[in-house]
Design goal:
With 157 residues, the chain is mainly β. The protein is built from 1 helix and 12 strands; from the N terminus they run E-E-E-E-E-E-E-E-E-E-E-E-H. Strands 8-7-6-5-4-3-2-1-12-11-10-9 form a 12-stranded antiparallel β-sheet, covered by helices on one side. The relative contact order is 0.21.
Length: 157
């Protein structure tokens, strides 16, 4: 697969638990629940509900409000993405924060970085052509935010 040039998208925290996506040609935002593993996302005026579920096989899912069937799932053991076959999601925690990589052989790669601080932006580097790209980025960012929050709670902070 021929890779296209990398594009940078940034999710900036604008208020408590609310993030706005910059660098896209359409409006997109994410509001994460402060106590539940849920979020509301909007991409180009279309609302989505995000949730994190599972214990060992944690996965972030996105669905349209009122529908049971997810549009996508990004998880440790499996990923279901629009038009993707064989996607892999990996997250690494380090001193500077969290780095994640979503790789789909037939689509490309999305790499994300989330700093350790609560006010950190989330930077996404995207290569390839991704159907529902902004929703995928918001769902992956949600997964990272929940991971950081859960780690912070288990670390005593």
């Amino acid at each position: 697969m021929a890779m296209t040039a990398w594009q940078t998208l940034t999710l900036t925290r604008t208020a408590r638990d609310t993030y706005v996506l910059h660098g896209s040609g359409q409006s997109a935002d994410l509001t994460v629940s402060s106590w539940r593993s849920k979020a509301d996302a909007t991409v180009a005026g279309t609302p989505y509900e995000l949730s994190m579920s599972g214990l060992l096989a944690r996965a972030a899912t996105a669905r349209r409000p009122g529908y049971e069937e997810p549009i996508m799932r990004i998880g440790r053991t499996s990923c279901v993405l629009p038009s993707a076959h064989g996607a892999v999601w990996k997250v690494r925690r380090g001193w500077r924060g969290y780095d994640a990589r979503l790789l789909a052989d037939d689509l490309g790669e999305i790499s994300l970085h989330l700093g350790r601080g609560a006010r950190s932006d989330i930077v996404a580097e995207v290569a390839g052509e991704w159907p529902e790209r902004d929703l995928i980025v918001l769902t992956a960012a949600f997964a990272l935010l929940i991971r950081r929050r859960n780690d912070s709670r288990s670390d005593g902070g």
